[in-house]
Design a protein that fits this description.
Blueprint: E1 12-16, H1 20-29, E2 34-38, H2 48-54, E3 57-60, H3 75-86, E4 92-95, H4 103-110, E5 115-118, H5 128-133, E6 138-142, H6 149-159, E7 165-169, H7 170-200, H8 205-212, H9 239-252, H10 258-270
Parallel strand pairs: 1-2, 1-3, 3-4, 4-5, 6-7
Antiparallel strand pairs: 5-6
Bound molecules: nicotinamide-adenine-dinucleotide (NAD).
Length: 275
């Protein structure tokens, strides 16, 4: 692998963290680019210092688990960014891990040599490859120190010519990602509550749901009870942690997200193992 020259076209893509999201990025982008990855837990991992010099663009897909206080734990993201700054990479860095609003701005303040954008992922874990191949939109959130825009726009247009590219600030894109998961969680708790009322009245929720979702303003998702995993409420790796992180982040910012917090509380009561 030779060092990266300044680029106008992204042909060499590095993926850091090859779990659900990183595997999906590899699978999607290998149609249009040479893709290699770094993940010490997965066979075939390239050293980070090699990827940092070789790649035109680096997608960071490492975990951001729920910390003990509910806040998102961004330490792995921060450690990867510090390492990329130390390695003096000139690649465009696309952060795909879900992070609280302000994270990209904080990273660029701490590591001003990095060229960073937030590129949230919306896939569902159980359909991660299929979802990543059929996105509804691609969101790019430009940090205060962004990479060159045209090569990134070109990369996504090559792979997804018919998918809208939405360009926001990094803070707006970070908020939009957690808002998306919070909205789904609120819908699930709403449906579960209404289903309990239906049951109490001796009625079936399913025909009520079917009639409701014929109205496109309501949207035909997240209203089935039980859900696709056969259980009531929501679980999985993302919704409970991202909603808890959002509620805590809002509280730190002086805003009480009563609706999201209530939906999360109702879910924990209904499904204690999701907490
Ligand atoms: N799973 C989902 O459905 C989903 C959807 C959208 C967004 N996200 C977000 O994407 C991020 C990644 O989620 P995931 O589900 O792919 O996680 P995952 O646990 O499936 O995979 C993370 C991978 O990162 C690797 N890793 C950890 N530290 C590393 C390091 N320092 N360098 C290189 N690799 C490292 C791990 O070995 C693991 O293979 C999280 O922020 C998550 O919230 C997940």
């Amino acid at each position: 692998m030779s060092p990266t020259p300044p680029t106008t076209r992204i042909d060499r893509v590095g993926v850091i963290g090859r779990g659900y999201v990183g595997s999906a990025v590899v699978s999607v982008l290998e149609d249009v680019a040479d893709v290699r990855f770094h993940d010490p837990a997965v066979d075939g991992s390239a050293p980070l210092e090699v990827l940092a010099r070789w790649a035109d663009a680096l997608f960071v897909c490492v975990p951001t688990p729920r910390g003990p206080d509910g806040r998102a734990d961004t330490r792995t993201v921060m450690a990867v960014m510090a390492e990329l700054a130390r390695l003096e990479t000139t690649a465009a860095i696309l952060l795909k891990s879900t992070v609280p609003p302000g994270t990209c701005a904080a990273i660029t303040a701490r590591h001003p040599t990095l060229h960073l954008a937030f590129n949230p992922e919306f896939l569902r874990e159980r359909h991660h490859l299929a979802d990543a191949r059929a996105p509804h939109r691609i969101v790019l959130g430009w940090s205060p120190r962004p990479p060159e825009a045209p090569p990134l726009r070109d990369l996504f247009a090559r792979r997804f010519p018919d998918v809208p590219l939405v360009e926001l600030s990094s803070g707006e894109a970070e908020l939009m990602k957690v808002a998306s998961n919070a909205f789904f969680g609120v819908k699930v708790s709403f449906a579960n509550e209404l289903r309990e009322l239906a049951t109490q009245l001796g009625l079936d929720w399913e025909p009520v749901r079917q009639a409701l979702v014929l109205d496109p303003r309501i949207g035909d998702a997240h209203l089935r009870v039980p859900g696709p995993d056969g259980a009531v409420g929501f679980g999985g790796a993302c919704l409970p942690k991202d909603m808890a992180g959002l509620v805590q982040f809002a509280e730190d910012s002086g805003v009480d997200l009563e609706v999201v917090a209530a939906a999360l509380r109702a879910n924990t009561r209904r499904r204690p193992d999701s907490d």
